[in-house]
Amino acid sequence: MTTSKRGDLFNPLCPTRQLLDRIGTKWTSLTVKVLAESTPGEVRFTELRRRIPGISQKMPSVTLQSLVHDGSVARRVEPTVPPRVHYQLTALGRSPDGPLGALRTWAEQHMAAIESNNRHADGLPQEPEHLRQEPLRPSE
Fold first, then answer.
1. Which of 12, 23, 28, 85 is most buried, by CB atoms within 10 Å?
2. Which of 110, 107, 98 is nearest to 136 (CA)?
3. What is the pLDDT of residues 28-79, one digit of tens each?
4. Residue 75 bridge partners (DSSP)
5. Strand pairing of 43-44 and 73-78?
């Protein structure tokens, strides 16, 4: 069911804030990326975990439960022993991949500068010159 009611991000009681909390996590962004790039479109739980290095046992479950609950991911269970569980983005779940992808790209491109700024703000020594990355130019 689609409604035309729009959220108000600046209203403290608006559920938009909770939605942004859920979709704004690194695990949600990486999960959406893995599911968006999957062929033929479904990914098993174990494959998803394998494709997201550093994710704990718990976080893919929590992330997928939230995405399934929101209607962003479809879950299919094969009645085998043990059950094989497959996940696939729905049309709703594919829609944030573009904006999340742009944010992931921005983070990768600006990580070195932000890390350097954080080190400077924390009073830590800067990276040696030979390890510094050149800043990206707007045309890159």
1. 28
2. 110
3. 999 999 999 987 789 999 999 999 999 998 999 999 999 999 999 999 999 9
4. 87
5. unpaired
3-state helix, strand, coil in the chain (%, to 5): 50, 10, 40
Rounded to the nearest angstrom, the gap between the alpha carbon of residue 88 and the centroid of all alpha carbons in its chain is 15
The three-point CA angle 23-26-28 to 5° equals 45
Report yes or no: 51 and 34 within 8 Å, Cβ to Cβ. yes
Residue 5, classified by CB atoms within 10 Å of its CB into exposed (0-12), middle (13-18) or buried (19+), is exposed
Name every residue whose Cβ is closer than 8 Å to that of residue 49 and which is 6 or more positions away in sequence: 55, 57, 60
Q: What token pair was written down for 112?
A: 């070195």
Q: With contact defined as beta carbons under 8 Å apart, do 42 and 88 qualify?
A: yes
- HSE-CB at 95 with a 13 A cutoff on CA atoms is 6
Is pTM beyond 0.85 here? no
